[in-house]
Task: inverse folding
């Protein structure tokens, strides 16, 4: 995957491509490593200071500055030296064995294809909305740091997500900027002969051309597809216009492009990933594409192909409520997939539909992408511990009669790519304490090195960080007011708002109901009193977009803007418009406290709060998502009682709790200083939060966990299964015979706290090696159940039944233990691939 050098003549017109040294500059400009490693910033700044300030996109600079300027700079020995040095470093980084090569050299894993509707890598490539893209982008970057062979697959949107303007009435206006591919840090994917790789997929009987693009992200690659090919009909060109735009019709086409087009793209590049990782159900059509491909290559049935290929598929769910699952109506599915089912998969349309239905036989039921993903995967995971357990509930009905604790959904808590979100100052502090390569391997010694930092160092760091945020806020607000058309006299005040010494809270997120973005406004007077306290003042920065057609969401924004105006709080509160990655970066680097008030358990994980950790910011958050597992009293503050509440009154209770936390805990701690002016308890909390939480909630940990617990096992499972796929015959046999499997007699001998169970089971001719009998007992504390295997004692007793035996030593009542029969054959994942189960009672 190291990637060949670019052919320079494909990148620039003739006048530019012959400049000596331009290839090296292009190599740097087209590697998104610059989004987290700032060693090349100086070069871009030297080439065009203004453009760099405005775009932070080296590729635009390279394409824009004059030829003379390029020649002049490339002729400058200092510039040349720096460039040569950076190219050498880049070469070293991309070839040196990284964590994966050093730790898992024996693994059979060659490639993981990571499918996602959005990737948040840089503001220079705006193809994301929020959290989901953040997870994808940050994990791709960490995979690069760690050398894990992950390849991203996504879509290139002509417009991405909307840009937000707040007008003088506080109303959100949506603008759609054009993503000019010539100025994005991406290049067309070209074949050996220089031809642009274009792919053809079939939609409703029409051929649709997809263009392909490559994004370099350090050692990893992201491949993007778009349909804006002049050879397409206008309606097809528009498929990839807008992220999450349009209705279900647009969405299903986008998801077909992603899943089916994405798989074709990999095939065209001769990439055969053992593992496909679906980031949310949007990507689930890849399950079909992968199976279809396998069918053709191996000349087998669709079901056989599914049984083999699913062994390499991994599904990560991000949804916390059933209503959140992507679903498509029967007619829509029929329109887009009826022909595909017959022609490509050789199955009836109803068969395909059954893969996305809760009840496969219910012909009126819509198609849920998450169900397809589940039926096409070998592992499913949620994105925090709490979300794992919420997801086990959500999906439990697919596994009737199975205990919730055994619903096959695990969890890998998300993390963020720390080098992307740390400030220059934070980087310096961490480099000093933990070294330059700290995010490229294991993180075991990190906590101690950070815990050793002095109060003075930490407080100075925090003071400066807040100061920079205040400067940024003033500048940004000035620009925002100018653009919104405020009169000059009003705009001027932006230069004087806020105070770098004042406790600074930030609240930035999408304005959707479950985030409860206006919880702080429950009692406006009380909030005003908190902000305006003359002895212990507080300042607050708000940012966030409401979905473009969501009127209630937009009103919530307006409510904030009105609040600021009505109470003349311009000096204490700002609403920054157009929340995006750059705004996040500034906020998480400078804020003292990051607020988050979602309605539990809707925040599957949440990642924005993790971004403050490395920068010494603290979290005050609902005990939901990641914070439910990260929180302890020494690292931050928790809202809520760690339970779900349906009643409406609960929001008011939590609002009150939020005010009380601020009034009695957060604010006093910040303003209680020692004789050197240092808030010692606050600084201790910062230290604990940085030391304890940063390593754990880094994408480094997340990607290592995915690698070891999911990718590597999935690759070997897939390779195992591809060798012999008799599994389908057994599956069918069990299906035919299961209905008559029955318990016969149970005898329990009881002696000195030990029970001896004998049970006879009629297994109806099933090979006894394909089932197991066990004793099940719930854990009394809600933990993992106690499962005791029973041993086959007598095969075919007089009545033809099998007799199984087990002894247990326990003080628990015998009634706690229930015998059961479950499938168990050839590496099958039970109950995911075979959900049969028979209980004694
Ligand atoms: C990190 C980030 C998110 C995710 O934030 P959560 O509120 O934690 O889900 C969303 N949008 C942007 C711009 C981000 O940087």
Result:
């Amino acid at each position: 995957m190291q990637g060949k050098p670019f052919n320079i003549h494909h990148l620039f017109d003739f006048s530019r491509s012959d400049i000596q040294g331009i290839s090296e500059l292009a190599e740097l400009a087209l590697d998104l490593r610059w989004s987290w490693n700032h060693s090349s910033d100086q070069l871009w700044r030297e080439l065009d200071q203004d453009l760099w300030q405005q775009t932070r996109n080296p590729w635009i600079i390279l394409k824009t500055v004059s030829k003379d300027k390029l020649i002049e700079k490339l002729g400058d020995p200092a510039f040349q030296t720096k460039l040569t040095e950076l190219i050498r470093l880049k070469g070293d980084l991309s070839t040196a064995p990284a964590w994966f090569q050093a730790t898992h050299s024996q693994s059979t894993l060659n490639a993981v294809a990571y499918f996602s509707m959005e990737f948040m890598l840089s503001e220079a490539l705006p193809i994301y909305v929020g959290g989901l893209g953040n997870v994808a982008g940050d994990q791709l970057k960490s995979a690069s740091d760690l050398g894990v062979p992950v390849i991203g697959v996504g879509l290139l949107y002509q417009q991405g997500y909307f840009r937000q303007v707040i007008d003088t009435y506080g109303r959100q206006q949506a603008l759609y900027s054009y993503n000019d591919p010539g100025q994005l840090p991406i290049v067309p994917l070209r074949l050996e002969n220089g031809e642009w790789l274009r792919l053809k997929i079939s939609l409703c009987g029409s051929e649709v051309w997809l263009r392909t693009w490559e994004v370099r992200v350090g050692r990893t690659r992201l491949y993007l597809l778009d349909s804006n090919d002049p050879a397409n009909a206008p309606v097809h060109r528009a498929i990839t216009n807008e992220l999450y735009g349009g209705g279900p019709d647009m969405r299903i086409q986008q998801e077909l492009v992603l899943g089916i087009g994405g798989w074709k793209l990999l095939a065209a590049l001769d990439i055969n990933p053992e593992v496909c990782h679906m980031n949310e159900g949007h990507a689930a059509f890849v399950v079909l594409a992968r199976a279809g491909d396998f069918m053709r290559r191996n000349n087998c049935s669709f079901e056989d192909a599914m049984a083999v290929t699913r062994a390499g598929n991994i599904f990560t769910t991000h949804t916390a409520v059933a209503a959140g699952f992507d679903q498509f109506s029967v007619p829509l599915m029929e329109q887009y997939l009826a022909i595909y089912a017959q022609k490509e998969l050789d199955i009836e349309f109803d068969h395909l539909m059954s893969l996305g239905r809760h009840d496969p036989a219910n012909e009126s039921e819509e198609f849920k992408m998450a169900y397809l993903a589940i039926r096409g995967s070998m592992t499913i995971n949620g994105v925090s511990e709490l979300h794992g357990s919420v997801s086990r509930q959500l999906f439990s009905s697919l596994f009737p009669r199975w205990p919730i604790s055994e619903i096959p959904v695990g969890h890998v808590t998300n993390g963020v790519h720390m080098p992307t979100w740390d400030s220059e100052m934070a980087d310096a502090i961490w480099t000093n304490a933990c070294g330059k390569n700290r995010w490229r391997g294991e993180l075991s010694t990190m906590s101690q090195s950070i815990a050793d930092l002095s109060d003075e160092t930490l407080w100075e760091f925090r003071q400066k960080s807040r100061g920079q945020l205040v400067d940024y806020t003033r500048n940004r607000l000035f620009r925002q007011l100018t653009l919104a058309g405020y009169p000059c006299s009003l705009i001027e005040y932006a230069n004087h708002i806020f105070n770098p010494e004042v406790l600074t809270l930030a609240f930035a997120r999408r304005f959707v109901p479950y985030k409860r973005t206006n919880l702080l406004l429950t009692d406006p007077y009380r909030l005003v009193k908190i902000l305006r306290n003359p002895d212990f003042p507080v300042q607050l920065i708000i940012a966030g977009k409401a979905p473009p057609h969501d009127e209630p969401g937009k009103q919530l924004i307006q409510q904030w803007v009105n609040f600021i105006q009505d109470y003349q709080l311009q000096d204490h509160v700002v609403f920054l418009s157009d929340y995006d990655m750059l705004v996040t970066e500034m906020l998480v680097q400078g804020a003292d406290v990051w607020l988050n008030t979602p309605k539990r358990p809707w925040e599957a994980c949440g990642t924005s709060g993790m971004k403050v950790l490395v920068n010494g910011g603290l979290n005050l958050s609902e005990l939901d998502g990641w914070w439910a597992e990260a929180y302890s009293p020494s690292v931050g503050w928790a809202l809520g009682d760690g339970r779900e509440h349906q009643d409406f009154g609960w929001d008011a209770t939590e609002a009150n709790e939020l005010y009380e936390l601020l009034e009695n805990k957060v604010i006093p701690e910040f303003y209680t200083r020692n004789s050197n002016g240092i808030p010692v308890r606050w600084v201790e909390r910062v230290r604990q939060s940085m030391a304890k939480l940063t390593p754990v909630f880094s994408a480094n940990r997340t990607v290592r966990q995915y690698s070891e617990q999911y990718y590597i096992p999935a690759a070997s499972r897939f390779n195992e299964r591809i060798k012999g796929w008799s599994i389908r015959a057994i599956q069918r046999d069990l299906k035919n015979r299961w209905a008559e499997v029955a318990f016969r007699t149970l005898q329990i001998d009881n002696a000195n706290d030990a029970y001896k169970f004998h049970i006879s089971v009629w297994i109806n001719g099933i090979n006894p090696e394909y089932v197991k009998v066990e004793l099940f007992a719930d854990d009394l504390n809600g933990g993992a159940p106690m499962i005791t295997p029973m041993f086959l004692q007598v095969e075919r007793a007089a009545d033809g039944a099998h007799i199984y035996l087990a002894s247990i030593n326990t003080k628990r009542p015998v009634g706690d233990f229930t015998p059961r029969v479950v499938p168990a054959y050839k590496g099958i994942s039970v109950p995911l691939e075979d959900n049969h189960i028979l209980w004694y009672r």
